[in-house]
């Protein structure tokens, strides 16, 4: 049976964050832990369901909270404001990600030497920044993520394997952005891969994305294929 619990954690300034952690109660030993970094609107049932799905694969899933306890967007305007707070302060964004990593490592069901992270949309940017920081986590996966690097760039040795799962028609990460990412990753000698899905836009894993005129739409085939790619990726890096 999948166990799901709220997990409150604090930063050095005593700000509270509330994540949701999930694991299978049949586990008899510590398992790899995988963070789930949320979209621009904040942690939601979408990310919690992904944490549960990871638990069903044999991991400990942790739907993290980068905005703070109770801070969730009720619409696009609020979501933009919340995201901008971190997007315009990338060191703060990174500190929130590292806080979540350390919180997950301390959980009793987690093998702290085997940590990964996945992120969706803005959450994709968050996990890529985590890798860019030189963090020792094993690997990160970006689903239809935002790809622009921090400025100034940390220029750290990237220790994490990187998998980017991208819709070719994503208006928020254009083909030129993919080229820039490839140049960035090659320049840092990173272990990186990109899967590109045709006829696929932004937010392709989200069944609630129904704005094809804006390039935001659910794509069932790409959703299924990207999840399969993620499972193969983590099986490889954790084995």
Your description of this structure?
It holds the Pfam family DLH. Residues 18-237 form the Dienelactone hydrolase domain. This is Carboxymethylenebutenolidase. InterPro entries: AB_hydrolase_fold, Dienelactn_hydro, FrsA_esterase. An eight-stranded mixed beta sheet has the order 1-2-4-3-5-6-7-8, with helices on both faces. Helix 1 links the parallel strand 3 and strand 4 (60-63). With 239 residues, it is of the alpha/beta class. It is globular and about 45 Å long. 46% of the residues are buried. The two termini are 24 Å apart. Helices cover 35% and strands 26% of the residues. The longest helix is centred in the C-terminal third of the chain and has 19 residues, at 220-238. It contains six helices and ten strands. It has one domain (2-238): Alpha/Beta hydrolase fold, catalytic domain (Rossmann fold).
Shape annotation: globular
Low-confidence stretches: none
Average pLDDT number: 98
Provide the domain count: 1
Count of DSSP helices?
6
Strand order of the largest sheet: 1-2-4-3-5-6-7-8
Helix content: 25-40%
SSE ordering? EEEHEHHEHEEHEEEH
Main beta sheet = 8 strands, mixed
The CATH homologous superfamily name equals Alpha/Beta hydrolase fold, catalytic domain
At the third CATH level, what is the topology name? Rossmann fold
What is the subunit arrangement here? Answer: single chain
Pfam family, one: DLH
Protein name: Carboxymethylenebutenolidase
Domain Dienelactone hydrolase: 18-237
GO molecular function: hydrolase activity
